[in-house]
Specification:
Helices cover 56% and strands 12% of the residues. By secondary structure, it is α+β, with helices and mostly antiparallel strands.
Length: 368
């Protein structure tokens, strides 16, 4: 199989449909859990969409026990939550207070008086009150704008504008297309590495380019997963495709790291996952941090990954790796050396046959 040159990826080629800030998940895990509460298919989201369709405004606060003097006036309803009830009650002025688990509508027609000393980026009265209340009470507040026809979600110091499912689905589909292209490149890089490792020509750069692509795909997949949270039940097909594209990826990465870093593979993975995205785009940076090399050079794996693709039992693979320094030595070992390790002529013959089949698949450009 001929060696190929693969150009380094550029940021704009990979993340065109979304911002770097979203890529880095600035909202945090807690906010992801909040988004699940308003995902399409939930009763609360049904009500929010009804507000938009009817061009109604609304201010909704979840009572986490910290509202204190922020809430004044209004009256208690203490009724079981339903989308229809929420829409009807929102026709009155003021904020609506829901229970923390969104199972009850507690109060309606209430006024919010958060501290005006709390900073806010909002301009409208309703949205200022929403952001300040969220920050002061550390709770979830939802503001629906009748004029701008948008839904703003506030949680603590974070804020986010919800979008219609059709728009989120479009973005998710675009991101999946990028992921598909990255998977094609990864598969080609891996085929190339298979060939180079068997021919004992693999270099540090070849290994780093495969690891780089895995990490890029993992980061892109995190964006799709964020969209899946927002899509709720409407993201089933996207979820299935994402699973297909990411299938076996982390296992390959783990095997490569075990091949080149042995018992330190977990530490190497941690270094990769902590890399800034812009830093990750240059394979030489990976080489410098993982291999502590500034120059490219030939390197041989221990044999964990490729021998693991054969039908050899794990105990025989462990014996081979334990008795030889690397895959290159295993492949060039004499029959006498291998017989001493494998224990029988039948096992030696089986090993030779498995290695031959492995090389044939690689030479034909087949995935392993």
């Amino acid at each position: 199989m001929a060696e190929e040159n693969y150009e380094n990826p550029k940021t704009e080629e990979i993340f065109l449909p979304f911002s770097k800030e979203k890529m880095e998940g600035e909202l945090g895990k807690d906010f992801m859990d909040v988004l699940k509460m308003v995902a399409p298919g939930t009763s609360l989201r049904v009500a929010l969409d009804d507000f938009l369709n009817a061009k109604m405004g609304a201010l909704i606060v979840l009572d986490n026990g910290n509202l204190g003097d922020i809430v004044e006036g209004g009256f208690k309803v203490n009724t079981k939550f339903s989308a229809q009830k929420l829409v009807e009650l929102a026709k009155m002025d003021g904020a609506i207070i829901l229970s923390k688990d969104v199972k009850e509508i507690l109060n309606v027609n209430t006024l919010l008086f958060p501290s005006i000393s709390i900073s806010t980026k909002e301009t409208g009265t309703r949205h200022k009150a929403a952001e300040r209340t969220a920050k002061q009470a550390k709770t979830i507040v939802i503001a629906v704008s009748e004029r701008k026809n948008k839904i703003s979600l506030y949680y603590g110091d974070s804020s986010y504008q919800l979008e219609r499912s059709s728009e989120i689905l479009r973005r998710a589909s675009e991101t999946l297309q990028i992921l598909e292209k990255q998977r094609d490149v990864f598969d080609n890089l891996l085929l190339n590495l298979n060939s180079l490792e068997l021919r004992r020509h693999a270099t540090i750069t070849d290994v780093c380019m495969v690891l780089q692509r895995v990490e890029i795909m993992k980061r892109v997949s995190e964006v799709v997963e964020r969209y899946l949270i927002e899509l709720g039940k409407e993201g089933t097909i996207v979820k299935m495709r994402l699973k297909e594209l990411m299938g076996g990826l982390q296992k390959e990465e783990e095997s490569i790291l075990k091949d080149y870093f042995g018992q330190n593979h977990s530490s190497s993975l941690e270094i990769l996952e902590k890399m800034d995205f812009d830093f990750l785009l240059e394979p030489m940076n990976i080489s410098r941090l993982l291999f502590e090399e500034l120059h490219d050079k030939t390197i041989s794996p221990r044999g964990v990954r490729l021998l693991g693709k054969t039908n050899l039992l794990e105990r025989y693979i462990d014996l081979l790796i334990g008795n030889f320094e690397n895959l290159s030595e295993i492949l060039s070992a004499s029959n006498e050396e291998l017989l001493e390790i494998l224990g029988s002529e039948a096992m030696l013959s089986f090993f030779r046959e498995e290695v031959y089949n492995l090389k044939e698949k690689v030479n034909l450009g087949k995935g392993l």
